[in-house]
Amino acid sequence: MSIYTIAEIDLSILKNNMNVISSITHGAKLLNVLKANAYGHGIIEIAKASEKFKVDAIGVATVEEGVKIRKSGIKVPIIVLFQHFKSEAEEVCKYNLTPIISNDECLPYYEKYMERYRGSLKIHVYIKVDTGLNRMGAKPEEVLDLAKKVLSCKNLVLEGINTHFAAADMKDSAGKDFTREQIKTFNEVINNLKSNKIEVNTIHSANSAAILSYEESFFDMVRAGITLYGYPPVNTNADIKPFMEVKSKVVLIKKLKKGESVSYGMTWKADKDTKIALIPIGYADGISRKLSNNWEVKINNKYYPVRGRICMDLTIVEIFKGNVNVEDDVLIFGNDKKLNAETMAKRIETIPHEVLVRIGERVRRVYKD
């Protein structure tokens, strides 16, 4: 909405979070998950910073995301975490992406396009094992045959296998038992491959929650998603912090008389003479309308409540105390004990992931080291 509405991203905290995760996982290789515009943080800049900070691989959800990163000059392996369409196999090969497959449908297409684009080089392929999430992946009993098919292709390398957990962030016994059963099933698949003399370079299963809770899930590499961005899905003492702060500035201050309402629907009326401040950020920028009369902002180290409905382009707060002026900085959420993506998520009954990825494209990303 406004050039003064920004998402300020501190890359030094990203580096710290990466180092903390590497310490927890005893030096296992690190894959930074950068899908959905790096959880709203900006996919290209976070990819460049990740490479600078010596990440081992980058994970994306789509081929399109992978191509975008590769075109920016990134050289580290880019792993496409989700099943792609056969029609996208050409770009996978052309841009040297690493696909994770659930079946053999794309194998002949990789063979065809590798000869065209990569010459004597080979494409590295992962097999996803469905150990219980029942989303993507080959069933455990299908993995051996699929691995043999990959190995039979002259232009392919079976780089590794992976799985994904359904309940690693759950604290109850059912969630813990289910996760341990998934790890057990995954180990059985690994051992079956080994007994058939099939070796792979990289095995990974640990997502953000498992990194913090299941050491037996680390294997060769771990995948850091929401934890990387400062919002661990389980309780931890690890020094991991958010590194994006959404900020704006006061654009207008108005006096309000007792009994007057603000914004659409007259959902809030002043119980005394007061003042309001208008902030140029709204639901078009990713600030949920459910936060109407249900959030605060921070101005000059004081907290002020949101009043009335959040608009497409504006948020209104009551400034009944302190000294607030036009162009004063406003923290919407960030690395703040009270105002952060986790507390915001609880207010609107969702998860921090959704809060972060909702931050719109007109919120300018500003990066600092």
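(the above was protein one; protein two follows)
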Amino acid sequence: MVKETQPAEHDLVEQVQTGSRSAFDRLVTPLVPQLLTLARRMLGSASEAEDAVQSALASVWVARAKLDPERPPVAFLTTVTLNKCRDALRRRKAARFFGFAGNDFDLDLAADEPDAGVIAADRQALERVQQAMERLPVRLREALVLVSMEGMSQREAAEVLGVTEKAVETRVYRARARLREKFDGF
């Protein structure tokens, strides 16, 4: 059951819909700690949580017309924040899949920017991986992306692709084998 918003919240949401930045600040400021806690629990990283919440708030501001004055804004903000967390998790998963990220996300680094040589090498490596994936047959690439990068189960991927779970398992195995073969010693 969705509870209705309080009168003050109702008025703030209407002001936000008309473009009042100060009303937006008054509406979201009390909710930020709750959103940060949610994002930290989802991502396990304070800095990534802050980025996710900031991105969520920016998205809500841009899509402020979607706010419903009759519903609590916390539900909409929570949904958007969860979506931003899912995006971050997908990016993290893709980075791990391609070998560009470790497991520690809150490490203090000596410098804010990576060395230019590291950036260039990472870009070249990513380009090679992207090219190798583009060369995979579509049926192998689809299965690999759905299972390994989109986080679908083999059953879900099978439903999407209209094949059996065993076919998805085989396609993912073959795609990974081709990529491993291509990047052996990489």
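Reviewer note on protein two: The chain has two domains: 7-97, 116-182.
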